[in-house]
């Protein structure tokens, strides 16, 4: 059966179509009904690109310390692949197989606890009953528990997530592994569709098709997840990043088919997450198969693209364009996660600007000591929180049917909203794309040209709703990189010119009359990528009968704060104390300094008398 929905607004049409399918299938919930985990509003660090599978307890400690010392403390941590107990199958008959290069992906889980790299010893004071004569004794404690305790106690981490595959590990759970026999794991061999194999051969799938995957029987998978997750929760872990989810749909033979098996696994996963991680602590990854999306009742965060590849120059423009377009669909089911990136990298600003307006979690995978703190402080406030946009970031209407990675003429524009303002990020993504011959992303134009496009206030599709009834369409636009502030009449456009891997972030702030002859618009923290994310409330008091008015704002963060006012304000007060400000007669920019607050997530009361 094919369902077709029609409408005049493309974003509303997609939303309503998914909601109709939700009501019909009754197997999943729309994103708006799901609890978003709390970690998304805090800066994070993931161990993957820092260590890959060589991650250790000491490496985790070094990474957290390194970022905090630079003034951008991570408040959530993902311990990625490399912490689990795994074993490899050395099959003589596979030694000459063409997939031997990927044999590491057939490693299987041999226990639900952490491996030796995470086992730590701590000193325990000798009790009066001890008779060995020593002052201290070494006590073995669960290593992961100590890692989590230290991360939270010594480094201020609020949320710790750990990685595991949907099947336990890449190669599943080892059949009849000691202590894991009750999961009834048995070897299964993935069967891929001709379409997938013709488009993108995959070394993981090729390996497992020969060496097999230890598939936990669907009647035992809830027990498996619950025992794994309850152990993690006992160590203080707050959630899981569940990877390689798409493998399940290739293993349906003998289990009722791909839909039945996928649904059984997801029902079990979500039941275990609900039982063990009360903040709905789950990130879904490698999971774009529709069987998964149509089975997700509570999972609220989904990886939106392939990985960030720090060593692949062809990947960076493609990554940004992919996450934006994938979010059009994925964002109806969950909040898309646009993945980690490196802050010290030639494309770091490009990636950072995209994450800032994507509405996604913001986290990096820097090696300890390899950071660009100047860049990170455009994303992260001193308390470790971030200014996250409100919606999933999506391409603007005029980009929906363009190809900004390959057509040689189009810039990619991504829109989002904050509580009082809109934002449009513009990116030159030309020069690379998927090659149908080599079956990989490659550079197809080594020197793509400089492109010119334009933005307008209604590129932010929801801007009229933010502005309120009676809005004339007029806005001020603050360009983050250039620092320019322009008052833009309704329907007018503002040009933008970018080279490849360049970006600009435009903050679109609706102008409203606040007193006779006086117009005003809040902007936000001028030195942050998502400036408008700092403004949480804006209301006007007075202003009638020719009298002056007070614009009352609730703002978060610290640094240079800006707003537009058509005439110089009489005074500005921050938490009732009068503060100095500057005013630019040419642009109408009101600027003042907000100090670092003493409390986390503190909201300042800013009053501007006009």
TrEMBL record:
The keyword NADP does not apply. The keyword Mitochondrion does not apply. It holds the Pfam family Raffinose_syn. One of its GO terms (molecular function) is galactinol-sucrose galactosyltransferase activity. Its EC number is 2.4.1.82. Residues 116-143 are annotated as: Disordered. It comes from the Eukaryota. It catalyses: alpha-D-galactosyl-(1->3)-1D-myo-inositol + sucrose = raffinose + myo-inositol. Keywords: Carbohydrate metabolism. PANTHER family: GALACTINOL--SUCROSE GALACTOSYLTRANSFERASE 2-RELATED, PTHR31268. Belongs to the glycosyl hydrolases 36 family. This is galactinol--sucrose galactosyltransferase.
């Amino acid at each position: 059966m094919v369902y077709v929905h029609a409408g005049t607004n493309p974003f509303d049409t997609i939303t309503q179509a998914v909601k109709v399918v939700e009501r019909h299938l009754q197997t999943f919930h729309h994103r708006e009904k799901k609890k978003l985990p709390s970690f998304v509003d805090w800066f994070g660090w993931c161990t993957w690109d820092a260590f890959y599978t060589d991650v250790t307890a000491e490496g985790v400690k070094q990474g957290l310390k390194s970022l905090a010392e630079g003034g951008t403390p991570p408040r959530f941590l993902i311990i990625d692949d490399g912490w689990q107990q795994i074993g490899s199958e050395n099959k003589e008959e596979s030694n000459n197989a063409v997939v031997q290069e990927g044999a590491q992906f057939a490693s299987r889980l041999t226990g639900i606890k952490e491996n030796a790299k995470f086992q730590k010893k701590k000193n325990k004071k000798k009790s009066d009953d001890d008779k060995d004569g020593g002052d201290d004794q070494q006590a073995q404690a669960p290593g992961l528990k100590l890692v989590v305790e230290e991360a939270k106690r010594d480094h201020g981490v609020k949320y710790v997530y750990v990685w595991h595959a949907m099947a336990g590990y890449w190669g599943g759970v080892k059949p009849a592994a000691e202590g894991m026999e009750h999961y009834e794991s048995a070897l299964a061999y993935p069967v891929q569709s001709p379409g997938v194999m013709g488009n993108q051969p995959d070394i993981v799938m090729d390996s497992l098709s020969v060496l097999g995957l230890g598939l936990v029987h669907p009647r035992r998978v809830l027990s498996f997840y619950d025992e794994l997750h309850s152990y993690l929760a006992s160590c203080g872990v707050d959630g899981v990043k569940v990877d390689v989810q798409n493998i399940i749909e290739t293993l349906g033979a003998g289990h009722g088919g791909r839909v039945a098996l996928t649904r059984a696994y997801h029902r079990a996963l979500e039941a275990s997450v609900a039982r063990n991680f009360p903040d709905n602590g789950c990130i879904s990854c490698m999971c774009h198969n529709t069987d998964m999306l149509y089975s997700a009742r509570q999972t609220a965060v989904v990886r939106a693209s392939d990985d960030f590849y720090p060593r692949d120059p062809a990947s960076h423009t493609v990554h940004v364009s992919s996450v934006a377009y994938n979010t059009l669909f994925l964002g109806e089911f969950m909040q898309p996660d646009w993945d980690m990136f490196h802050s010290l990298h030639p494309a770091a600003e490009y990636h950072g600007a995209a994450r800032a307006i994507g509405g996604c979690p913001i986290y990096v995978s820097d090696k300890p000591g390899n950071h660009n703190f100047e860049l990170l402080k455009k994303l992260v406030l001193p308390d470790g929180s971030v200014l996250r946009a409100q919606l999933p970031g999506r391409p603007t209407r005029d980009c929906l049917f363009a190809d900004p990675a390959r057509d040689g003429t189009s810039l990619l524009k991504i829109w989002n909203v904050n509580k009082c303002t809109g934002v449009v990020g513009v990116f030159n993504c030309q020069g690379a794309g998927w090659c149908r011959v080599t079956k990989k992303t490659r550079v197809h134009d080594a020197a793509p040209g400089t492109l010119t496009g334009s933005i307008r206030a209604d590129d932010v599709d929801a801007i009229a709703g933010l502005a309120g009834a009676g809005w004339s369409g007029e806005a001020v636009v603050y360009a983050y990189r250039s620092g320019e502030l322009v008052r833009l009449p309704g329907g007018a456009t503002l040009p933008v010119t970018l080279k490849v891997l360049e970006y600009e972030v435009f903050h679109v702030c609706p102008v409203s009359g606040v007193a006779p002859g006086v117009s005003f618009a809040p902007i936000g923290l001028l030195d942050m990528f998502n400036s408008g994310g700092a403004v949480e409330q804006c209301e006007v008091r007075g202003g009638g009968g020719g009298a002056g008015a007070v614009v009352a704002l609730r703002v978060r963060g610290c640094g240079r704060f800006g707003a537009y006012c058509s005439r110089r304000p009489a005074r500005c007060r921050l938490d009732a104390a009068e503060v100095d400000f500057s005013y630019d007669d040419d642009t109408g920019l009101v600027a003042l300094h907000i100090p670092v607050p003493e409390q986390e997530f503190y909201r300042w009361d800013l009053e501007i008398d006009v």
